[in-house]
Q: What sequence folds into this?
């Protein structure tokens, strides 16, 4: 059965690209879309930043036609600011608005935003209601199981947010206290799915990093779709590999070396296009190693790539990588 959010038809069991700060920008989203992501989100955007028209926050509103369906994710601690930010973000023309109630990092959660709202469900409900009323777009929410082991209040959160009009909920199977440690536990996510009161799509998130895990957890936890974050960094093929495994029970061959170089080059080109040469070159540095994980003796190339400032030289290094490793059989990170 197709999963629907408002008028957006995501097909059966959609795979979503997770919002990731400093990662999920348009260049990264471009390669993930090519890799088969069914829906994507911007990285989270500060509501205060949007209201102040801070250039950094405004730039994060950039979305492109080929990215659809795409959601803009916002966060904040003040209800009025979130309402205003929703109006501003809606004008950027996304397909939906998403609220972040999951971010655990100190300078977000300790300022009353992100996962901090898990400690004040009444305020979370009011904030969400304000966002829902401020836009004609569907509103979705991304959150965690709860604040800590003693307050896993996701069931109350799911019911109350559904009641005030959110149209899908993504749950990361960790508490705020866990940060990114330990294994994600999807047991409570299954409970939410089994709750007969819950009608909206429930997406599971946390630790999906292989086609087998995706298939096993799909079966075990009965979610409507999955959101994938870290496993897509440097490996946008995760989406098509998971889908292929769902359809056939067999592994799609991993990307060839040429495909790796090509995806990295595309990411680089898009970075320069969108960020300009200086920032584009600089911010691409954090991605190179991820595209070439598992290649023997890659370190010298990495060292060159993360130092080089000249765009043509970077292209030349990528060509050299292509030549040097041409005879290496494809390495499938996900296998
Ligand atoms: C570098 C990084 C940045 C992140 N930034 C965001 C963010 O902006 N908004 C958000 O909702 N979650 C953010 N997250 C959390 C991810 O969306 C996701 O919930 C988490 O990584 C677990 O999924 P995974 O195991 O598939 O990576 C971030 C995670 C990482 C690793």
A:
């Amino acid at each position: 059965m197709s999963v629907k959010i408002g008028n957006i038809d995501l097909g059966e069991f959609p795979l979503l690209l997770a919002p990731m700060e400093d990662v999920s920008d348009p260049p990264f989203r471009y390669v993930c879309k090519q890799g088969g992501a069914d829906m994507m989100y911007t990285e989270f955007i500060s509501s205060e930043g949007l209201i102040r028209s801070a250039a950094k926050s405004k730039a994060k509103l950039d979305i492109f036609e080929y990215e659809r369906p795409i959601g803009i994710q916002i966060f904040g601690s003040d209800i009025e600011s979130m309402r205003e930010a929703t109006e501003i973000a809606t004008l950027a023309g996304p397909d939906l608005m998403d609220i972040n109630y999951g971010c655990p990092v100190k300078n977000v959660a300790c300022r009353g935003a992100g996962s901090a709202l898990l400690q004040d469900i009444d305020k979370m409900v009011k904030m969400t209601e304000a966002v829902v009323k401020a836009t004609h777009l569907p509103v979705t929410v991304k959150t965690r199981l709860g604040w800590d082991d003693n307050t896993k209040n996701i069931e109350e959160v799911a019911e109350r947010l559904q009641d005030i009009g959110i149209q899908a909920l993504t749950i990361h199977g960790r508490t705020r206290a866990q940060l990114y440690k330990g294994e994600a536990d999807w047991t409570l996510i299954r409970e939410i799915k089994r709750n007969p009161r819950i009608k909206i799509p429930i997406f599971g998130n946390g630790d999906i990093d292989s086609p087998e895990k995706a298939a096993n957890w799909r079966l075990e936890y009965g979610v409507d779709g999955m959101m994938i974050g870290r496993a897509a960094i440097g490996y946008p093929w995760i989406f098509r590999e998971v889908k292929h495994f769902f359809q056939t029970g067999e592994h799609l061959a991993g990307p060839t070396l040429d495909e790796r170089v090509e995806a990295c080059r595309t990411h680089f080109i898009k970075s320069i296009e969108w960020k300009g040469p200086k920032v584009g070159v600089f911010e691409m540095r954090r991605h190179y190693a991820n595209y070439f994980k598992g290649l023997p003796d890659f370190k010298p190339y990495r060292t060159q790539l993360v130092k080089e400032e000249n765009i043509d030289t970077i292209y030349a290094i990528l060509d050299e990588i292509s030549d040097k490793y041409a005879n290496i059989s494809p390495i499938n990170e996900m296998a």
About this structure: The mean pLDDT is 96. The radius of gyration is 20 Å.
